[in-house]
Automatic annotation (TrEMBL):
One of its GO terms (molecular function) is pectinesterase inhibitor activity. This is Pectinesterase inhibitor domain-containing protein. Keywords: Signal. It comes from Lotus japonicus. Residues 1-26 form the signal peptide. It holds the Pfam family PMEI. The keyword 4Fe-4S does not apply. Residues 32-188 form the Pectinesterase inhibitor domain. The keyword Signal applies.
Length: 199
């Protein structure tokens, strides 16, 4: 064989090897952080909301299940906080009927509790490196689930047909957004927890 043929052959082999390696990577389940987020969000009840709220943190999440769950919880906490502060403003609005005022007040307390539970959950997830991972994750699952119940309890308070429509609509808009993000965070927490139990 001439040197030229050998060179051609080795180039051919090299490009085959490179091609195979590249397609093996591309065929993996999550070729990049955005794809990882999209894939993981399929486990949630509101996947479009999940992708929309988390992709901006792709650089933090990378392809790490724990980081994904912590980020989802942090987003949920911050949205719940802002709807809690909206409720606080609403309790001070004059001219609201007693029934409505009572519901707003209850809702504010529920949302404050929800923020506390989410805050505690973010902290607990940060402590998993210190050990007791399964126990801590089970605490987080309990608290996030309770935080979601708090938000739904707030919404239930406005279910009465005689509630003022405009008030109900403006409160629902905020709390529903927070509760969808919280429901998603719970799904991602559960997903992470299940991966620890069955690695
Ligand atoms: C939780 O709340 C405390 C007290 O309000 C605050 O200092 C802390 O930053 C919060 N934690 C998180 C993770 O936001």
């Amino acid at each position: 064989m001439t040197g030229r043929v050998l060179l051609l052959l080795s180039l051919l082999v090299l490009s085959l090897v490179l091609f195979t390696a590249e397609s093996a990577v591309a065929r993996g389940p999550n070729p990049n952080p955005i794809e990882f987020i999209k894939f993981s969000c399929r486990a949630t009840r509101y996947p479009a909301v999940c992708v929309q709220t988390l992709t901006r943190y792709a650089h933090v999440i990378r392809q790490n299940e724990q980081q994904l769950a912590i980020t989802a919880l942090t987003v949920s906490m911050s949205m719940t906080k802002s709807s809690a502060s909206f409720m606080k403003k609403m309790t001070k609005v004059k001219g609201i009927k007693p029934r409505e005022h009572g519901a707003v007040q209850d809702c504010k307390e529920n949302m404050d509790n929800s923020v506390d539970r989410l805050n505690q959950s973010v902290k607990e997830m940060g402590l998993t490196a210190a050990g007791n991972v399964m126990w801590r994750m089970s605490n987080v699952q309990t608290w996030v689930s309770a935080a979601l119940t708090d938000q739904n309890t707030c919404l239930d308070g406005f279910a009465h047909p005689q509630m003022d429509r405009n008030l109900k609509a403006s409160i629902r808009a905020r709390v529903v957004d927070a509760s969808q993000v919280t429901s998603n965070a719970l799904a991602l927490v559960n997903r992470f927890a299940s991966k620890i139990e069955t690695p």
